[in-house]
What we know:
This is GlcNAc-PI de-N-acetylase. Keywords: Zinc. It comes from Microbispora corallina. By secondary structure, the protein is α/β, with parallel strands linked by helices. The chain has a single domain, classed as 3-Layer(aba) Sandwich (Rossmann fold), CATH 3.40.50. It is 36% helix and 15% strand. It is built from 9 helices and 7 strands, in the order βααβαβαβαβαβαααβ. Strands 3-2-1-4-5-7-6 form a 7-stranded mixed beta sheet, sandwiched between helices. Helix 4 packs across helix 5. The two termini are 31 Å apart.
Amino acid sequence: MVTQDDNVPWGAMRTAVFFHAHPDDEALLTAGTMAMLAAEGHRVVLVVATAGERGLADLPHGEELAKARTGELHRSAAALGCARVVLLGYGDSGLAIDGGVAGDRPDDAFIDADLEEAAQRLAAILKEETADLLTIYDPAGGYGHPDHVQVYRVGGRAAEIAGTPIVLEATVNRDLLLKGVRLAARFYPALDVRSFERAYSPGEAITHRVNVRRYAGAKRASMAAHASQATGGDGDRTLGAMLKIPSFAYRFVFGTEWYVRRGLPRGVRLRHPFDNP
């Protein structure tokens, strides 16, 4: 049972629902925030649209990969202190190399789900949990995966239905990302810098910069739980490369998580998910 921490500066225990597309998305974008809120005594609920059965991995696509990734998801959630994990059970839509939707996607692909029906399912969870906060993705779905775009659409509508007061778009500071990518391109000329120029959100749009360095250990454990996503394919996997970063540098590289809250006054900069201007 999650208990209230007397030192929580943001009032009584609240409930935060983190909505993601696939297992491991939580580890990459919001794990530090989730661990922080859980440590502060808030209730953290993780909702995932698909089992990620079409993700790049050494295991065959389908039931075998879905089972493996579901187990990894629960191990990640445990490392972060989640009180509840919900899988909505939609099919993984997959990602075509050219940025479009892969043609052989399953009949139950999340991208093809009826928006209102999917939103009602998520809204039912938000109402049941009396959620104070919901995280989704930015309109571009971060790097453009169709399931991530659908998370933005479904999550936004679900919050409207349930009356969830705070909706944060989990993202990455594009300005900082581009600096890193351009530096990396000097050593890896084949790296397509242009593909990152519209990914995630520009720094000026970001409203929340959450310092999660104290929870770097939990975030790293969350990433490590998704072992199937550390290998697979012909090149280096992003998650596998991240886990090779030394601990002292990891805290610096992954010590901030970024969010956008629509409708706030221009120039607002907040440091905690429950902060208001």
